[in-house]
Amino acid sequence: MLYAGMDVHKKFTHAVVKTEKGEVVKEDEIKAEENKIERFFEDVEEQFEVAIEATSNYEFFYEILEDLASRVHLANPYKTRLIAEEEVKTDKVDANALADLLRGNLLPTSYVPCKDIRDLRRIARRRIKLGEQRTEIKNQILTELRRQNIDYSNKSLFKKDGKQFLRDLSNPIIDSCLSIYETINKELEETQKKLTKKGMKYSQVKLLSTIPGVGSYSATVIFEEIADIDRFASEEKLYSYAGLVPTVHQSGEQTYRGRLTKECNKYLQWILVQAVQTHFQYCPESNISSFYRRLKKKKPTNVAKIAAARKLLQAIYHMLKNEDEFRVEG
């Protein structure tokens, strides 16, 4: 078996192939183009594994390498640097470090779901981003109304009558924002339809939709961000992945619990907090809702909300593990 490392960039990538003993079989800087990558590896006669870092454009390289290598590893960039930090940092050094960590079985990796889930995840994250952009435009309109001291307290601004009210103001800033809002909203609705259609093909999404307050959109986002539930050995591992546990610092016999960990899946964290708030409304009699009301009497609201989101995630963990529908008293 041979071991390869690739330091990937937008235009170029430095690639190296090594033996189990660390001898360089092949090394070069190549253009980040499919045919150039294929050409580099075409005369590598033995089977090889390859490591690349989890960059924003990793999927381009990953999907090419899937057809060339016996296995592709996605390196966790933060943990890789902790292990293999060099005083002299170049593309060549980074590629060699990845290959060396891989052949030594020391490479810290990131999980990569199958292509279908990656496609679903891409659509879901696009829908989330569109929602953020739509909210930003709404806030700009509200800011302009307040700046002009225009009373809108009795208006549903983003429904048909409300939008007509905004147009009748003949305010150029509001008109511009409203035009952008309608474009984003149309794209958002089309993206959500596509996401729902794809998501409902999965039994896990249908299962999660049995949770009161969790619709097909939320269920799809939760599923595609978790992907394979079996990769989490315990519910605590899933809590940590979702960023629903505090950081812990120990010194001697003292233990300090701080804010929520930042090294987490922010999409899963966000959708769980949104979903649990909806759950309170649709299912006030559930154990999760009761737990939230009890905790809110002793803790700040946000703390209680995060704790309830963690309890919801606990239910989700066991639902997916056991392929069991949500139980109000479960």
SSE ordering: EEEHEHEHHHHHHHHEEHHH
Compute the CA-based radius of gyration.
25 Å
**Beta-strand fraction estimate:** 5-15%
Give the spatial strand order of the biggest sheet.
3-2-1-4-5
Task: Based on the model shown, name its key terms.
Nucleotidyltransferase, domain 5; alpha/beta; 330 residues; single chain; globular
SSE layout and pairing:
Elements: E1 2-8, E2 12-18, E3 24-31, H1 34-42, E4 48-53, H2 58-65, E5 71-75, H3 77-84, H4 91-103, H5 115-147, H6 160-168, H7 172-199, H8 203-208, H9 216-226, H10 235-241, E6 246-251, E7 254-260, H11 266-282, H12 287-296, H13 301-322
Parallel strand pairs: 1-4, 4-5
Antiparallel strand pairs: 1-2, 2-3, 6-7
Task: Tell me about this structure.
It is a single chain. The protein has helices at 34-42, 58-65, 77-84, 91-103, 115-147, 160-168, 172-199, 203-208, 216-226, 235-241, 266-282, 287-296, 301-322; strands at residues 2-8, 12-18, 24-31, 48-53, 71-75, 246-251, 254-260. It has 330 residues and is of the alpha/beta class. The protein has 3 domains: 2-103, ATPase, nucleotide binding domain (Nucleotidyltransferase, domain 5, 2-Layer Sandwich); 115-195; 216-322, no CATH class. The strands form 2 sheets. A 5-stranded mixed sheet has the order 3-2-1-4-5. The chain has a two-stranded antiparallel ribbon with strand order 6-7. Strand 6 (246-251) and strand 7 (254-260) form a beta hairpin. The longest helix is centred in the middle third of the chain and has 33 residues, at 115-147.
